[in-house]
Structure formats: structure tokens, C-alpha cells
Please model this.
Amino acid sequence: MSNKDVHLEIRDSVAIVRLSRPAKRNALSDGLILALRNVFENLPDTVRAAVLDGEGEHFCAGLDLSELKERDAGQGLHHSRMWHAALECLQYGPVPVVAALHGAVVGGGLELASACHIRVADESTFYALPEGSRGIFVGGGGAVRIPRLIGAARMADMMLTGRVYNAQDGERIGFAQYLVPLGQAFDKAFELAQRVAQNAPLTNYALMHALPRIAEQPADQGFLTEALMAAIAQSAPEAKSRVKDFLEGRANKVKKD
Ligand code: 1HE
Model:
């Protein structure tokens, strides 16, 4: 499933998916977006979590601007919808995805990172939405996902003024859940993915597929959806055996870090 621009490696039960166009700062060509979709649609059944990384000094420079041709409105619509379909395969795919961020996480690269479930950033990371200065708009789901991380006002400021957030401020406002020293994003992301891979698959499914939808529902509908998901999750044999393990002293207690 690897292709020249996206490399796939399976380590234990974790898929390592790496953007591999370092000479172009992992700029997202159409071919790369389709290759990413293909990888997440066809992960082997043994995979329980994934890490998304970028080769070289930058996670991703966004849309491959050399492909930004004259498109009419209809072609532009379909191009954006092609990105949506691919990133939905990642967000609502088979397994949780941990992004290992470093260097530029800009434009479509930030849209891609926003579709992941956990973001780990090292100190070299910076976030920007240069679409504003290029005379274009986000088109890879950023207008939906980014305000849910940082708020619409901050996103509008980034696009209107070209504001760039550094790694510390990016973590403070909600781009990344983890901030680690230079060069350690991949190791931390892999460690987290290994932990995620040990969860009951139905719990991971609920967190990926139910939680974001419940969060968007009006409260009375959300409470019902939560109750239905809780009932399904706890009926799984794996949930019963995990609870029994705890009650009989075989499972880990919750500890302070
Ligand atoms: C590219 C791209 C790209 C680099 N498309 N070729 N994204 C942007 O507006 C960001 C544009 N890129 C940059 O600002 C910088 O390249 C970086 C800060 C990411 C990295 O800087 P640096 O000094 O390490 O690299 P570089 O010398 O600028 O780039 C190395 C090569 O990659 C160079 O090509 P070369 O043939 O001269 O070696 C660059 O042209 C090429 N390159 N970024 C094409 N983005 C769904 S809609 C989403 C809309 C957007 O994402 S808009 C934002 C696009």
C-alpha cells in the first residue's frame, strides 16, 4: 500500500503512515491525498491505532500550490470534496490516529492534522493558514474542524492577518494535546498509539465515531445517543472481562503520572 509519497509500516499493532515528499515539504498533491485515503481504507485488520508523521523537517506545507490550476467553480467544488472524502476516511476510519507534528503545519497540513484524533507537537512546530495571503480559502475541512479546536475567532485572525502560532502557543490554544522537546514527537506519538491500541476496539470506535457527533447534538439528543453507545459498549464480552479483571485485582489501578 506504500507509494512513493506515502510510506506505510506496521509495527506491532500500530500503523506508521508517513508523508514522504520531504523535498517539497510534504506538500499535498492530489496523488498524495488519494494515496492517504487508500492507506486508511485498506489498513490490515491487525492494526489497532495509527501514527501520522511527515518525513524531514516539516510535517506538511499544505496544498501543493504547483497543482493549483485554473479551475472553474464546479471543478473547485469537486476538488475540495475529494479532500473531504479522504480526510473523512482518516477521521472516521478504522482506528484512532495520532499525529506527530514538527516544523510547518500549515494550510492543508493543518487541516490534515485537525482530522487526527490526537496531536503531539515538538518545539519546532508552527501553525499557520496562509490561504488568506494566497487569495484562496481552506477547502480540506478546515472551516469545520479548526474552529472546533481553537474557535472561529482565532481561525479568522490567522487567515486575516497571517498570524503564525509557535509550538507553545499552539498547545495553549488547543492545536496539540501534547508538547514535547525537539525531535521527540514521533516517539511520543508512537507510545500513545501503543496505549490506544490496547483499548477495547468498541471503546475506540465510540470515541472516534460517537463522541464527536454527540458533542454536536443538542443536549437532550446527546444524552440519548450517549446512553445507547454506553449500553452497546458495556455489552461487549471484552468490557465484561476487563471489569471482572479489575474487580478481582488483576487490572491496573488509575495512578498519577
Ligand atoms: C511547495 C510547497 C507547497 C514548499 N506547494 N511546493 N501552503 C503554503 O502557502 C506554504 C508554502 N510553503 C512555505 O511557506 C515553506 O515552503 C515552508 C515554511 C513550508 C518550508 O520552508 P523551507 O525554507 O524549509 O522550504 P522551501 O525552500 O520554501 O521549499 C522547498 C521546496 O518545496 C521548494 O521547491 P524547489 O523546487 O524550489 O526546491 C518549494 O517551492 C516547495 N514547496 N511548500 C508546492 N505548499 C485544501 S485547500 C488547502 C489550501 C492550502 O493549503 S494553502 C497553503 C499552501
